[in-house]
Each structure stands twice: as C-alpha cells, then as structure tokens.
Amino acid sequence: MPTIPPKDPIPAGTASGQWGDLSARVMSGAAMAVVGVVAIILGGVWFQMLAVFVTAVMVWELWMMISPEAPTPGMLLAALVASVMSGQLHVGPSPALALFFVVPLIGAWAVRHERVTFFVFALGIQLAGWGLVTFRSEFGFTWLLWLVLVVIVTDIAGYFAGRTFGGPKFWPKVSPKKTWSGTVAGWIGAGLVGLGFMIVTNAGASIIPISMALSLASQMGDIAESALKRRMHVKDSSALIPGHGGLFDRFDALLGASLFMLAVAFLLDVPGVAF
Predict the structure, then answer these.
(1) What is the Cα–Cα distance from 260 to 74, expressed in whole angstroms?
(2) What pTM was estimated for this model as a whole?
(3) At 105, phi and psi to the nearest 5?
(4) Sign of the C-alpha dihedral, residues 137, 141, 143, 148?
C-alpha cells in the first residue's frame, strides 16, 4: 500500500515551498472550472452526465484507497454506481432512492476491511451527486452557481490566507496543513459571496450566515476526506488531475456542501434563500 512521501526539503518559508504547486493547481483548476460552468449553464442531461461521471470516478477512487490490491471490483462498482445514478437522477425524493444503498452495501461486502468506511463514504458521494443535480433541476442555475461559488471562494481564500499568514492549525491530527487563518478567511469569503447574491438577487439577509455555514460544511467535507486518506496512508485519492490528485481530492468540499444543503432542504424552511 502506498505511503505518504517525505516532506519537500525546500523550507516552507521560501516562494517555492509556499507556492510551488500553484501553477499546476491553477491550470488544472481552470480547466475543471470551464467544464463545470458550461455543464451548470446547460443543465439537463449535460449536467447529469457530468455528475454521473464524477460520482462514479470518486467511488472508484474510494475503492482504490481502501482496497488497491483488487482494482477490478472497483471498476465494476464504478460502472454500477453510474447505472444507479443515471437511473435515479431524474426523480425527486422517492422510495426508488433506496437503490443508492446498493453500491455501498455491495462494496462493504466485497472489501476485506474498512467496510463501514466504504459504506458511509460511498453513500455520501452518491447522495451528494444526486443532490447537486436535483438543486440544478428544481432551484435553477443561480442557486447552484451560489453553492459552487461559496465552495470555490472558501477554497481559494483558505489557500492564500493559510499560505500567507499561517498560524495555529485548525485540526492538526486530521488535516495538518489547514490553519485557523485559512479557515476563517474561507468563512469571510463565503459571507461576501452571500452578500453579493443578496444584493443582485431577491435572496434575503439570511443568505449571508447560510453561506458561511455552507463554507464550514465544505471545509468539513475536505477534512473528512483528509481523515480518510490519513487512515488509508495515501497522499491523494488518485493521480488523475495535475496539482490536485484525484476527483475526490478536488470535489470533497463540494460533497460536504451538497450534503449540508440536502439536510437544510429536507429538515428546515429557511426564508429568503430562494432566488
């Protein structure tokens, strides 16, 4: 099983140490942003296909982190999750959503260890993917754009503030690189996104604290995946994206945000958030 490589010998205070991965992150991030924005704008089957693809790949990456010695079952599970997702993305909440439990249960039975871990993460990935498509279909482009922008701004603000200011770690045992300065900067950035949407849309003032809560949820998604990687002793979920690792590494925060908004939509009636 692969292990986390030793830290770069370049001192963290140098430009190379702080920003050495910035070029690759920017280029690959820009490419993903273009694909994502186009799919969000088009909506319908185009966004659904992107959600199915990304969800299936993340389930495969999850399998490969937990059981890298057996890649074939992971590919089969990815194909199965794609078929389940494509069959259920067109429907709203219904008993048919119980099919989302099929892949986690099969995977939990197939892996030799970390069965509960696989079940929880695989189920969360599928529900988050379904939630994003449901949000786009039922609430429209502007609503999903707000959610995605909150996640992106949280990540960017956290990255630059953390690298610039450093300081105490937010949760060193789980995510040793995440600092309180970056975490708080993410909340502030998300609040500003909410303020912007309050000004240009008919969203009420509650969009600001909800944006900040959504920011925290996205950070928890990132931390949850970091905890998984540390538990599995891997650096990245895969090597598909230069500077970012795998799709799970890139979309972990969006998963947390989607699951949070699913809970809000089902459990609460928050006024002033519908655009």
Answers:
(1) 27
(2) 0.84
(3) -70, -45
(4) positive
